Amino acid sequence: MQGMRVGFFGQSGPYAPIVLRHLAQLENTPFEIVYVVEGQRRVRGIRKHRWYKGKSRGLPSGDDLCPLATSAGIDAMISEDVNASEAIKELKERPIDILLCVGFDRLFCADILALPSQVAINCHPSALPKYRGPTPIFWCLKDGATQMAITLHAIDEHEDHGPIYNQEFFAIPSRSTGDTLYRLAANHAASLCEQILKQACVGSLEGTAQNDAEATRAPRPKAEDALIEPAEWECEALLNFCCAAPYFRIPWLKMGEDPYFIMRAIRTMPGDTLPGESAVQGKSLFVQCKDGVCELEIQT
Questions:
Q1: Global confidence as pTM
Q2: Residues 257-282, mean pLDDT to the nearest whole number
Q3: Which architecture characterizes domain 4-214 according to CATH?
């Protein structure tokens, strides 16, 4: 019996390729990934939607989604705008039962959502309905959170909005970079995606509607979003934010009229106090937090 046909949508980087690698290496599953669509802001050449033929061989290392897919024997499209009529026309020629999205560069139009015969599922790295949007990890850390989540939910016409099928929480390791956190999230997402695809294949998906009253949004951060006021932070929360935030937007603060850009956090000194709000020693900036002092490495 032929398994359910899955269309996998994602981007290169530390998230989607880890999930695809896990799914592609599974054996005897009730589903088959029949194509991969990689979203890119700019596609080289004249054609804005380009297919690459899959041919099974050893899977490459690295975070490039399309070469990983084709090496697993899966045809892959790189598209500058998957909602464009040309891309939709080509995708309609390749029937799927399940659409699985693991991070993409845009929301899907109605024609894309209509591609699967059964269900469209998104794998989002936050505890929905909190942190809907493209940059949940940044905002989660800015809020001083000590844990993150992966949420698998149905895709509808709204951003990260459909009923939730599964949600798994995990601790944020201290001093993690943004890249590290994406990889950690992807490792949790990989097993959850395997579970959800198997459930979808036997028709056992049950979703719970999101509570929109609890929803928050996580837009791509602007410069002003990365501005910090150390006195408003606890040491450990500031350290974790300054370790991970540069992946998304370099954090910074002002001393008088001078801006200081933070490359990373070095250490915390709980209970310590400074004579003033801050002190500079070479590349180190010491700042007073609610519960102690945090040492930051600054751009010089």
A1: 0.94
A2: 94
A3: 3-Layer(aba) Sandwich (3.40)
